[in-house]
Amino acid sequence: xxxxxxxxxxxxxxxxxxxxxxxxxxxxxxxxxxxxxxxxxxxxxxxxxxxxxxxxxxxxxxxxxxxxxxxxxxxxxxxxxxxxxxxxxxxxxxxxxxxxxxxxxxxxxxxxxxxxxxxxxxxxxxxxxxxxxxxxxx
Length: 138
Hints:
Layout: E1 2-6, E2 9-10, E3 18-21, E4 27-31, E5 35-39, E6 47-54, H1 61-73, H2 75-78, E7 82-89, E8 95-111, E9 120-128
Antiparallel strand pairs: 1-2, 1-7, 3-6, 4-5, 6-9, 7-8, 8-9
């Protein structure tokens, strides 16, 4: 069992799967005597894919949609990352491990399906955000 938060929104219906990608920026080179070799690179930013549904019985679908859209489209908010929290629990309720980091919503798409009146399906891609910037010298 687990629970997911994106900013101030707790996802009421957990996705069927939560995909996390962790990649390295490895460089491949071809050397005449050896053939292909690889030079290990640094770890790239983590990404997550979430595909799920907002059920109108569990949540105000309009407010949830507007909140997520504002995180992507508003100029003031889109440059601010949000907290992404995934708590994973064992059957006895003890926390196994969690994800707690800043993310930007890379993309989000919504889909209405026939026969699911009031429900809203969505597909969201998140990318890890690391704070950076210059330091002031005294």
